[in-house]
């Protein structure tokens, strides 16, 4: 049963107002299981919050509600405990891997564009941020029945490819290219820029080759394709490790032959003006610098490709929302693009959303002394995996699949840290903290899960195939109820992470589940009980917790391990 709905229905019967979204879960269960802040209605009803609360209290009753209390402006509801436990656990145990899921988003298409690294350039720590945020938003939406399209909008077009072709023809080392394709491509690209300082005419060479590429010159096309294939192959390795998938790799190049039509359309709507030789859409009225559509040399740029891509996506997918997971430094770019789309008369421009995120910094001196751009992701992940392995060697030296466990927990720790805080905030990687088994970390949650699994193994009870119903009402102790309450809140948390496009809501939720589980585990006997029925009831709660932790971690892109 959805108690929030029950309470909001009861209130609606009296007041004729839907208050579902205002119903809260009090931080402390002594204050009730649910609460309704009456001050939200004071203005509308022209009554003091206290008198609204008193009035509601006298009019509400239901067999599943054992008590209603007025505390200040709050109306606190106490649910009949055994009924409550039974209802929630019943849903968890029936739902299993689908618990928390719904079809709330049915028939709506959500585009999540994420990762979008640049060809021939290193995949940097900022790209890992968009990759993990995007992957989480992808899975979170999918869990609620949305039709989700994951797009990797590769940075595979632009004048830099002319430079790269020139640099390749002059300086590439083929052995290196084979061993370490992205580093070698990046090396010759950097070299090009060093050489330009000495001989500025090289810029013209770069432009010339890009023009040839745009005009379809075969050699240039083949080289471009080679750079793209080599880079993608490297990126794929990382995606595989992270369990990240895309439905489309239509990047910037895909739109290169579709741009001209869009430029003409912008022009025909009278939006294009000449400015210092370039052609731009003026956005002064909206307090923004102009959106450049064509450069002085006639080349189209980043913004034009984005406008073209958005129009294409609307036609192809008829999206309900088109989400761009891209760092905060590009916030203005997206505002300009969305505004231009709107001025062109696309009312769906309002459905395009930029989901930004902060910068990534390191506490570790060795890492922070190097430029972010160059920190190789592999290095970051390997460091994490190695450190976790050391801890496991100490804690559980006889563990069988140590490699696999360290990999999952090590990578999970990094992903968890990226998704722990509001995404807009800068994050600081402090390895000691990120990898700690205590505190609000990935390893802490994973360890909690493994501990729960180990209790289930030791019990010898075939918990998954048990007639569980009759045991559920035995769970009435405070720690049990607190844990069950949190387990019951999963779907609400998912919905709110969709509302705010904020995966950290799930991350914090899974921390909350773990904390409550550990409290229950530390203060209640489970395996050493004489009362066989209570023991089974508690094991059922342990099992339900493993279901919820696993499902929640899955939504943020983290795999669990049964033992560690
Ligand atoms: N490739 C770009 C970069 O690495 C990010 C692309 C963002 N997406 C977009 N539609 N512009 O900075």
Topology summary:
Layout: H1 3-15, E1 34-37, H2 39-45, H3 49-59, E2 65-71, E3 74-79, H4 81-95, E4 109-113, H5 125-143, E5 147-151, H6 160-171, H7 174-179, H8 181-198, H9 202-214, H10 218-242, H11 259-268, E6 272-275, E7 278-281, E8 291-294, H12 302-317, E9 321-325, H13 331-343, E10 352-355, E11 360-362, H14 365-368, H15 377-395, H16 402-418, E12 427-429, H17 431-434, H18 442-459, H19 478-488, H20 490-499, H21 504-523, H22 532-555
Parallel strand pairs: 4-5, 4-9, 9-10, 11-12
Antiparallel strand pairs: 1-3, 2-3, 6-7, 7-8
Bound molecules: arginine.
Arginine (ARG) is lined by residues 113, 116-118, 153, 155, 306, 324, 326.
What's the CATH C level of the domain at 377-555? Answer: Mainly Alpha
Q: Could you report the average pLDDT, rounded to the nearest whole number?
A: 93
Give the name of the CATH superfamily of the domain at 377-555.
Answer: Isoleucyl-tRNA Synthetase, Domain 1
Radius of gyration based on Cα positions: 28 Å
What strand line-up does the widest sheet have? 5-4-9-10
Distance between the termini: 36 Å
**Beta-strand content estimate:** 5-15%
Described by the principal axes of the CA atoms, the overall outline is: globular
Which consecutive residue ranges, at least 5 long each, have pLDDT under 50?
A: 369-374
- CATH-derived architecture of the domain at 377-555: Orthogonal Bundle
Note down, in words, how this protein is organized.
Among the domains are: 3-79, 2-Layer Sandwich (Gyrase A, domain 2); 377-555, Orthogonal Bundle (Isoleucyl-tRNA Synthetase, Domain 1), CATH 1.10.730. It contains 22 helices and twelve strands. It has helices at 3-15, 39-45, 49-59, 81-95, 125-143, 160-171, 174-179, 181-198, 202-214, 218-242, 259-268, 302-317, 331-343, 365-368, 377-395, 402-418, 431-434, 442-459, 478-488, 490-499, 504-523, 532-555; strands spanning 34-37, 65-71, 74-79, 109-113, 147-151, 272-275, 278-281, 291-294, 321-325, 352-355, 360-362, 427-429. Strands 5-4-9-10 form a four-stranded parallel beta sheet, with helices on both faces. α12 (302-317) crosses α13 (331-343). 40% of the residues are buried. Bound molecules: arginine. Arginine (ARG) binds next to loops.
């Amino acid at each position: 049963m959805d108690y929030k709905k029950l309470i909001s229905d009861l209130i609606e019967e009296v007041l004729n107002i839907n208050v579902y979204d205002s119903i809260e879960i009090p931080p402390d269960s002594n204050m009730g299981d649910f609460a309704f802040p009456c001050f939200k209605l004071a203005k509308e009803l022209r009554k003091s919050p206290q008198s609204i609360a008193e009035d509601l209290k006298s009019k509400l009753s239901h067999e599943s509600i054992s008590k209603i209390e007025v505390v200040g402006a709050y109306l606190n509801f106490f649910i009949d405990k055994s009924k409550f436990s039974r209802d929630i656990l019943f849903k968890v145990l029936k739902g299993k891997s689908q618990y928390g899921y719904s079809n709330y988003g049915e028939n709506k298409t959500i585009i999540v564009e994420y990762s979008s690294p640049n060809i021939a350039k290193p995949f940097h720590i900022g790209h890992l941020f968009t990759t993990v945020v995007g992957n989480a938003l992808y899975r979170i939406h999918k869990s609620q029945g949305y039709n989700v399209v994951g797009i990797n909008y590769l940075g595979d077009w632009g004048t830099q490819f002319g430079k790269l072709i020139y640099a390749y023809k002059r300086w590439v080392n083929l052995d290196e290219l084979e061993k370490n394709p992205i580093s070698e491509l990046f090396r010759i690209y950097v070299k090009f820029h060093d050489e330009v300082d000495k001989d500025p005419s090289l810029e013209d060479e770069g432009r010339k080759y890009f023009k040839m590429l745009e005009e379809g010159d075969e050699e240039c096309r083949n080289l471009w394709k080679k750079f793209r294939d080599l880079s993608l192959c490297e990126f794929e390795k990382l995606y595989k490790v992270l369990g990240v998938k895309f439905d489309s790799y239509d990047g910037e190049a895909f739109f290169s032959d579709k741009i001209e039509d869009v430029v003409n359309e912008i022009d025909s709507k009278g939006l294009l003006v000449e400015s210092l030789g370039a052609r731009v859409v003026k956005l002064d009225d909206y307090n923004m610098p102009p959106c450049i559509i064509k450069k002085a040399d006639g080349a189209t740029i980043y913004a034009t490709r984005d406008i073209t891509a958005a129009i294409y996506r609307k036609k192809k997918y008829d999206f309900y929302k088109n989400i761009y997971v891209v760092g905060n430094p590009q916030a203005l770019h997206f505002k300009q693009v969305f505004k231009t789309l709107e001025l062109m008369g696309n009312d769906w421009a309002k459905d395009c959303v930029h989901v930004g995120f902060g910068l990534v910094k390191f506490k570790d001196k060795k890492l922070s002394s190097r430029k972010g751009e160059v920190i190789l992701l592999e290095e970051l992940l390997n460091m994490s995996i190695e450190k976790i392995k050391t801890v496991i060697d100490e804690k559980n030296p006889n563990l069988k699949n140590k490699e696999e466990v360290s990999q999952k927990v090590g990578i999970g720790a990094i992903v968890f840290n990226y998704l722990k805080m509001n995404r807009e905030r800068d994050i600081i990687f402090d390895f000691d903290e990120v990898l700690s088994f205590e505190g609000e970390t990935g390893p802490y949650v994973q360890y909690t899960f493994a501990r729960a699994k180990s209790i289930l193994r030791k019990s010898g009870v075939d918990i998954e195939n048990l007639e569980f119903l009759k045991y559920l009402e035995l769970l009435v102790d405070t720690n049990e109820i607190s844990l069950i309450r949190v387990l019951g809140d999963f779907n609400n948390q998912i919905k709110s992470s969709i509302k705010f496009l904020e995966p950290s809501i799930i991350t914090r939720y899974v921390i909350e589940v773990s904390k409550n589980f550990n409290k229950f585990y530390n203060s209640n006997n489970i395996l050493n009980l004489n009362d066989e029925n209570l023991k089974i009831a508690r094991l059922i709660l342990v099992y339900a917790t493993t279901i919820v932790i696993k499902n929640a971690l899955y939504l943020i892109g983290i795999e669990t391990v049964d033992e560690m």
